[in-house]
Amino acid sequence: MQAAATIKMTDLEQIKGAIAAKMDSASFSSWIAPLQFNVCNGDLVLTAQNQFSADFIGSVHKNVLSSIAAQFGLNLVICVRGANVKSSVANDNNVQSYAPVKTVEQAGVVNGFDTFVCCDENAFVLSACKKIAAGSVSFSPLFIYGASGCGKSLLVDCIEDSTSGRVIKMSGGQFVSEFTRSLHDRTIFAFKDFCRNCDTFILDDVQALAGKRATCEEFAQLLMDLRAAGKNIVLTANVAPSNLNGFDRRLQSLLASGLVADVAAPTTNVKRVMLMRAGVASDVADAISSRVSCDGHLVGGVAMKIKTYVELMGQSVTMDIAEHLLADTLKKARTPIAMVKSMCEKLGVAYDAVCGKGRCRGVVLARQMMMAVLKEVTNLSLTEIGRVCGDRDHATVVYALSQIEKLKKTDLVLAAQMNQLIADCR
């Protein structure tokens, strides 16, 4: 009798060791080690202290535990201390009900993809969004990434508005909250069914799941189930899948297994169109579009401020009024001379030398680079550019531009310097 008990204890220790080898130490010590292990009638019975622990272990670690039990020829049963040993956590979904927490509807109305102002850089991602809204696609999941304010959330709103089937759309923070709530309320299986019962699943701001291991595991399983069922999946984040922090390599590869597309920040023309659509006068939109940061949220705020001013004050917004009204938002206009002085500091040459008669090779090259930058970022004529750079004539400016174009093709360092100077002067 004592020998049989010793053999049984040895088997349980072997089972525990096999489970520990398959899991990270933190999860094992937090969730598995406190369980009471027992073998009864061909079942590996794991007894938890409360229903919450049993539900969590059953939803997150059940696959690992079942595979280890099968290696020893056992079936897995998870139960709660004091309950019937035979009652498994795998509850019948029909006895559970789940409904997401109602969120406040936003006042803005999305009217399909016409709402999104597209530039050439975003034509590809816009076409992919239209394709996925039209029906089942082969490139699911569609992973859209880009900086804040570039239009990711607007694109998924357009998909939701244009899709005919059932769409479930959540933010990353909402998914974490709903998953945790379903565990607490013991409706995890109903939550799983809710997320899978759709034609298109959209999750905005995937990065909100970072570091939440249980939520990430549930989300990974959800993605695999949806893709296996031929459902469309749309995800957004602020960076590409490979650059997401707090996600393991398996989930990163799963996120990148479909079509990954980036969204470019609004260009000057896109900002101008956005302002005009919001009711800003065309001349004011033309003047301020280049002086507003490339952030769609900020452009929307500028348009809202001008629109509100017109409604409250009863007068149209002129450029003078816009300058005063948006003093905290608009970039200060830089004169060509200010640009030249700034470039002199970055290139390490004296402003007097650039505008003087010096023929030193370094000064001549710096002067030519400045002429090329002014040609790129301003509307000055070649004669005006020559005047700013020390009263050079038209022919000198033409020669400088041709020289810089030749050097950019062979000198990568100079090309990078030019790109940086242009970006700084815009």
Bulk shape: elongated
Give the fraction of residues assigned to helices. Answer: 40-55%
What is the alpha-carbon Rg in Å? 31 Å
Which homologous superfamily in CATH is the superfamily of the largest domain?
Answer: P-loop containing nucleotide triphosphate hydrolases
Low-confidence regions:
1-5, 84-95
User: Can you tell me the CATH class of the largest domain?
Assistant: Alpha Beta
How are strands sequenced across the largest beta sheet? 5-6-7-4-8
Short description:
This protein has helices at residues 2-22, 25-32, 51-60, 62-71, 123-134, 152-162, 172-184, 188-196, 213-228, 249-255, 268-277, 282-288, 296-313, 319-325, 336-347, 351-355, 361-377, 382-388, 394-410, 412-425; strands at residues 36-40, 43-48, 75-80, 142-145, 167-171, 200-204, 232-237, 259-262. With 426 residues, the protein is of the alpha/beta class.
